[in-house]
């Protein structure tokens, strides 16, 4: 049987970066960012953690089989990085701790897994994985070789992530602890005003921060999409375009629904019109 002349792993071209998967995730991230702007962060942690863990699990299986190219491995990690953009904004909203202990725990696991995946990739994997006919080109403020000097910088970035990991996990534990206590008291959200009786402005201030992060996240979302799409093009990868496949259709439809719901939410006025008229 003749070998395929298509660069990269054909299974990955369907399961992890096919058109339906990529576009679906792009739309999901956009929808979550719009929800952050409208202060509707509920459910973002659960949605993002499940997607991140699923991608990391599939990525790890392929890494163990050593049947994907370095650039394909990096594309998947870059897509995962996109999902973290709205997730970070949602984590800043403290009132959403209650009832999201499972989602927050899953995010802590995802953070550990993603951090060590990044470190493992840039320390050894990018050298040992087969090229599979790709050009080894990645996006880093331009077109660069994944095995060039940029790898030294990324190793340093990975080392920095280790130092960030410990305090991040402490914050996760505090969130889980406070959220669980409030949940056991029967509260629906964390009462910031009771914690800071002399600083009632704190809740609104934190909402503004989340909204600003959502707006900045739109910029990161745009750059991330450009980076992924350029890497696919530069390396001659051919993502599966058949949206009739369940593996492509499910994330694509999910992305459309999440994004549509977020856009509809933007149409809702941020105040009670009847109440403002004194009716």
What does this structure look like?
Strand 1 and strand 2 form a beta hairpin. The N and C termini lie far apart (77 Å). This protein has a two-stranded antiparallel sheet. The chain has one domain. Helix 2 runs parallel beside helix 4 and helix 2 runs antiparallel to helix 8. The chain is an all-alpha fold and 279 residues long. Keywords: Membrane, Transmembrane, Transmembrane helix.
Please list the strands of the largest sheet in the order they lie side by side. 1-2
Helical percentage: 55-70%
Structurally, how many domains make up the residues? Answer: 1
Number of helices: 10
**How does the overall form come out from the CA principal axes?**
globular
Strand content: under 5%
Give me the count of strands. Answer: 2
How is the main sheet built? 2 strands, antiparallel
**What do the pLDDT scores average to?**
79
The SSE string, one letter per element, is HHHHHEEHHHHH
- CA radius of gyration: 21 Å
- Distance between the ends: 77 Å
Helix/sheet category: mainly alpha
Q: Are there runs of 5+ residues with pLDDT below 50, and where?
A: 192-199, 271-279
């Amino acid at each position: 049987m003749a070998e395929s002349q298509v660069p990269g792993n054909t299974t990955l071209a369907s399961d992890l970066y096919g058109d339906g998967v990529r576009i679906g995730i792009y739309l999901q991230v956009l929808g979550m960012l719009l929800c952050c702007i409208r202060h509707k962060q509920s459910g973002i942690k659960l949605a993002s953690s499940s997607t991140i863990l699923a991608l990391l699990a599939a990525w790890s299986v392929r890494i163990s089989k050593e049947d994907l190219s370095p650039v394909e491995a990096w594309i998947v990690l870059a897509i995962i990085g996109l999902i973290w953009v709205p997730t970070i904004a949602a984590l800043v909203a403290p009132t959403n701790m209650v009832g999201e202990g499972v989602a927050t725990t899953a995010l802590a696991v995802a953070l550990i897994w993603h951090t060590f995946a990044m470190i493992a990739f840039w320390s050894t994997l990018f050298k040992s994985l087969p090229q599979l006919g790709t050009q080894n080109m990645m996006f880093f403020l331009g077109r660069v070789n994944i095995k060039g000097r940029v790898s030294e910088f990324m190793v340093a970035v990975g080392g920095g992530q280790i130092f960030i990991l410990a305090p991040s996990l402490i914050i996760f534990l505090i969130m889980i602890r406070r959220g669980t206590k409030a949940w056991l008291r029967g509260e629906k959200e964390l009462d910031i005003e009771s914690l800071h009786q002399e600083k009632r402005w704190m809740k609104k201030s934190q909402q503004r921060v989340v909204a600003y992060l959502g707006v900045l996240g739109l910029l990161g979302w745009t750059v991330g999409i450009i980076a992924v799409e350029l890497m696919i093009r530069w390396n001659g990868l051919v993502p599966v375009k058949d949206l009739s496949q369940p593996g492509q259709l499910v994330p694509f439809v999910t992305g459309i629904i999440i994004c549509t719901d977020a856009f509809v939410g933007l149409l809702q006025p941020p105040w009670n019109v009847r109440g403002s008229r004194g009716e």
